[in-house]
Prior knowledge:
Number of strands: 16
Oligomer: single chain
Largest sheet: 7 strands, mixed
Structural class: alpha+beta
Number of helices: 15
Distance between the termini: 73 Å
Strand order of the largest sheet: 8-16-15-12-9-10-11
Strand content: 15-25%
Helix content: 25-40%
Amino acid sequence: xxxxxxxxxxxxxxxxxxxxxxxxxxxxxxxxxxxxxxxxxxxxxxxxxxxxxxxxxxxxxxxxxxxxxxxxxxxxxxxxxxxxxxxxxxxxxxxxxxxxxxxxxxxxxxxxxxxxxxxxxxxxxxxxxxxxxxxxxxxxxxxxxxxxxxxxxxxxxxxxxxxxxxxxxxxxxxxxxxxxxxxxxxxxxxxxxxxxxxxxxxxxxxxxxxxxxxxxxxxxxxxxxxxxxxxxxxxxxxxxxxxxxxxxxxxxxxxxxxxxxxxxxxxxxxxxxxxxxxxxxxxxxxxxxxxxxxxxxxxxxxxxxxxxxxxxxxxxxxxxxxxxxxxxxxxxxxxxxxxxxxxxxxxxxxxxxxxxxxxxxxxxxxxxxxxxxxxxxxxxxxxxxxxxxxxxxxxxxxxxxxxxxxxxxxxxxxxxxxxxxxxxxxxxxxxxxxxxxxxxxxxxxxxxxxxxxxxxxxxxxxxxxxxxxx
Length: 470
């Protein structure tokens, strides 16, 4: 039986357009080992580890007549050299040049005739460092259960772990008749899929939300929030195909200090920090900012408990109105903490499957139209996406090279001028801002303001202690 894409994965294929490539990416900066690090060593590392992620040697085949979702098939012509590429900056390469390269790489869509991923080894950075730029299509790494290749090339010690030798032999690719036969067999086994196709294809956005609500707890509450349009904001704009990329570097201990003295969670402090940065960015543009000004963020949050034995991650997303009009950083933090606590207590969250359902989890024949309509719909749901993924608080290594920094690259949806991702790693919190090149010419300003906003929170949190000690 064919390995068929599930509705969540296939939705990202249909959501993809000329200006909205649906790949997630990342930038990691490394310090080479004493013996050095080069392209051949990098390719050898990936060649030995790729067996841990078999999806990365597979490509997507569509079913004739779109009778069912596409399937994954082994790429009999798999060419590792195509996917693992070499690049360099003029020595000594600056961080600004590296960010520009990231933006150009992430602007280009992946080739759908091949496995949907690429990695770039970037040499020539100042201080002898090198970088790895990676991008993988959302259909392969949905954030729920899949493992990304950038994870399996890393080790917890400078000495790489042993991986059994891989004797991969691609399975023959099915022909058109075989794809159709598998699709028909699936439909016979799951006759409800035909009814779903008709029902969802004729439904409007409201009935889609209603259907999802029967399966996902709390989605109606989220739908009521979504019924209030997101505020007008320059964070929403018509976007093109080209990107800018900016980064911010902060210390995890600073977030913990603020949380310790003011309560809430580290994620609350992250959101308050971002709210302060967006406030400063709006003021720098001369935008009107009043005490009631808000920006709505979609904030994915892990909801998997420590005793949950099921594989993968469970993710919900909150729609949070960030109080960017509030000038006092501590009041901003209190308002964010209150809003997040209220979401958690009331069940106003959208499960990961429901988020895609809001984009139409319709089966394939009418999926494209529904997903594209919903992709335009996202503009009224929220202004910006903010993803916060905790990482290990110890160093990681790639074939002996120590990873110094890691910045996520989150794709833009239609009408979204910037997405903000952050990852905590080895004591740092690293922000990656993926932005439309024309709509966000000043994305570097926003990145700088993130660092300044956190410093403002740290100072404000320490002020009562200074008064008491005085």
